[in-house]
Amino acid sequence: MLEDVAAASLDQTFKDELQHVNHWFQSRSDAERTAALYSVVQCASPIQVRFLIMVLQQLANQEPLESFLT
Questions:
Q1: What angle is formed at CA 51 by the lines to CA 70 and CA 37, rounded to 5 degrees?
Q2: If you write DSSP's letter for every residue of 3-70 in order, what string do you get?
Q3: What are the residue ranges spanned by the domains of the chain?
Q4: Average pLDDT of adjacent 10-residue blocks, the chain of 70 residues
Q5: pTM, to two decimals
Q6: What sequence ranges are listed for the domain RNA-binding protein vts1-like alpha-helical (predicted)?
Q7: What is the DSSP letter of 1?
Q8: What's the CA gap between 33 and 63, in Å, rounded?
């Protein structure tokens, strides 16, 4: 799996497509982003879900809780 991720990160076509997806995502409202994230997570494999949980936990530990409440 890690080899596949590394190969994808070197693929220029994939990079271009990912940049397009990121631009589209950033132009959406919070509600639309949330719906899109939910939809994507529904298609994730168990290992991808575990990866996302790990990343989200790291991000949550970096942000003070007050920033989410304002």
A1: 50
A2: HHHHHHHH-HHHHHHHHHHHHHHHTS-HHHHHHHHHHHHHT--HHHHHHHHHHHHHHHHHS-THHHH-
A3: 2-69
A4: 83 94 98 97 96 92 68
A5: 0.70
A6: 18-61
A7: -
A8: 19
